[in-house]
């Protein structure tokens, strides 16, 4: 194995060459890391091979090429499928799985790799492929601290590392939580644009108002978080009952306009349950209690 020098970085293997995997390979290459790649469809490696990456013939060959093995796959099931026939080559390797999955499956994967002599770092990249390697990129990690510290210089190439702790599930917990926020907010914008669109108003006209609304929400988040942590939800600035009435009106407007009502119906249901639980005069942050109890 080639040792890093003053002019070359540590060798890296990347398995999985979708847009995210290719972006990581390009970033590693740009920073002088000898990079080996493998993908089920070998032709996807053509561009990065032209840039200097080495295409391995098998997953075992790819794993053997570097101590640091980065996986950019659909989920952890794909890891088992690809690495299931890799045996001795895994011993002493650090596998950084940047695939999306659940915290519990992350912990199970750590045990699976440990049985084969490898260490796992779980990660979650919080930007799209086009931003990998830029100042905007950051990546959640969890797993053994010493393992993370040893490979942090190479991992930093793809985005600012944000280490969450030794519990392998934490990186995916943060990753999924932020995607929960992002995906729901994104769909909410689409729904809102569709709602004003029923009157012939364009999404472009509506967009500045949506941005202003999201900026207001961003300003509220720190205070909401403090209220949640303190379990203190006074309704002096607004109550569940007040906002619940608004949620009911949004749902009624949606149905009157003939739009899909799944999202506003789900929001309305949370308010309904909160009022039924006796939280009508509390602040909306109190609804976390009904969310915690399915």
Number of strands: 8
The largest sheet is: 8 strands, mixed
Q: Which strands sit side by side, in order, in the main sheet?
A: 3-2-1-4-5-6-7-8
- Which secondary-structure class do the elements indicate? alpha/beta
Any idea what the shape is?
Answer: elongated
> Could you give the order of the helices and strands?
EHEHEHEHEHEEHEHHHHH
Specify the number of helices.
11
Poorly predicted regions: 1-7
Mean pLDDT: 96
Q: What fraction of the residues are assigned to beta strands by DSSP?
A: 5-15%
**What is the first-to-last residue Cα distance?**
51 Å
Q: What is the rounded Rg? A: 23 Å
Helix content class? 40-55%
Verbal overview:
The structure is a single chain. By secondary structure, this protein is α/β, with parallel strands linked by helices. 50% of the residues lie in helices and 12% in strands. Strands 3-2-1-4-5-6-7-8 form an 8-stranded mixed sheet, sandwiched between helices. The model is unreliable at 1-7 (pLDDT under 50).
List keywords for this structure.
294 residues; alpha/beta; eight-stranded mixed sheet; 11 helices; 8 strands; 50% helix; disordered N terminus
């Amino acid at each position: 194995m080639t040792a890093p020098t003053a002019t070359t970085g540590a060798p890296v293997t990347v398995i999985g060459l979708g847009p995210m995997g290719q972006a990581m390979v390009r970033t590693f290459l740009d920073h002088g890391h000898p990079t080996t790649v493998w993908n089920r469809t070998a032709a996807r490696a053509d561009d990065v091979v032209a840039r200097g990456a080495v295409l391995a013939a098998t997953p075992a060959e790819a794993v053997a090429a570097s101590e640091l093995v980065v996986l950019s796959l659909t989920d952890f099931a794909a890891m088992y499928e690809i690495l299931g026939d890799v045996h001795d080559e895994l011993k002493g390797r650090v596998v950084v799985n940047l695939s999306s999955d659940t915290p519990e499956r992350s912990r199970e994967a750590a045990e699976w790799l440990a049985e084969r002599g490898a260490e796992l770092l779980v990660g979650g990249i919080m930007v799209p492929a086009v931003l990998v390697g830029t100042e905007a990129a950051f990546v959640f990690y969890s797993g053994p601290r010493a393992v993370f510290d040893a490979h942090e210089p190479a991992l930093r190439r793809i985005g600012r590392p944000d280490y969450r702790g030794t519990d392998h599930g934490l990186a995916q917990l943060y990753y999924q939580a932020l995607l929960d926020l992002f995906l729901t907010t994104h769909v909410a914008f689409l729904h809102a644009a569709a709602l004003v669109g029923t009157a012939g108003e364009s999404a472009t006209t509506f967009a500045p108002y949506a941005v202003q609304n999201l900026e207001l929400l961003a300003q509220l988040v720190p205070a909401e978080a403090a209220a949640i942590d303190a379990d203190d939800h006074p309704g002096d600035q607004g109550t569940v009952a007040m906002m619940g009435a608004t949620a009911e009106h949004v749902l009624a407007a949606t149905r009157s306009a003939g739009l899909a009502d799944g999202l506003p119906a789900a929001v309305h249901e949370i308010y309904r349950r909160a009022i039924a639980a006796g939280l009508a005069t509390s602040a909306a942050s109190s609804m976390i209690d009904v969310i915690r109890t399915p």
